[in-house]
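Hi P.,

Sorry for the delay on this. The queue was packed all week, but I finally got your sequence through. Input first:
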Amino acid sequence: MTSPPSASRLGAKERLLLVLLAAVLAGAVLWLRGGLHPEAPLERLARQSPDLQVALANGRPTVVEFYADWCEACRTMAPAMEAMEQEHRGRLDVVLLNVDNPRWQPEMDRYAVNGIPQLELFNAQGEGVGRSIGARTASDLQALGRALIEDRPLPAIAGVGKVSQLNEDPAESSLRAAPAPALAGPRSHA
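Then the structure:
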């Protein structure tokens, strides 16, 4: 006569039930933590973005985007930015600077960032040649990227303008106007 199974040994049905319960719990944890979604283009670009100083000194033109994770226009524009970066990799640097990171405050001040997305456009010598404020279409970004790579004038696109270099004579610095009052910052929502 065989002895009854001990309480410590589980039958096939009980093991299957435990496996299913574990799978459901694992699925719930993944769902609560955002799941297995691939990283979004904005996060990918920001993560792989070269250091600003390296990009400006490596002999390639550079597009710097001031952005925020919560900025819907930035998120909408990200796939086109990523496509531009991939198409021109090795010929054009794309650098993303998050306006919510205090590390970039000096750059935000230097480039007078008061709205996002804001693109700063640099030639291969690291000199600022243009600025774009507001969301850009994929064709706008491709046109800007090609112009920078080919060292041509920036295309005529609404919201895109040239920047000029200040070569101020110290003797004339007293003639300079007083600084303008501070504008609302990109995080103010004013």
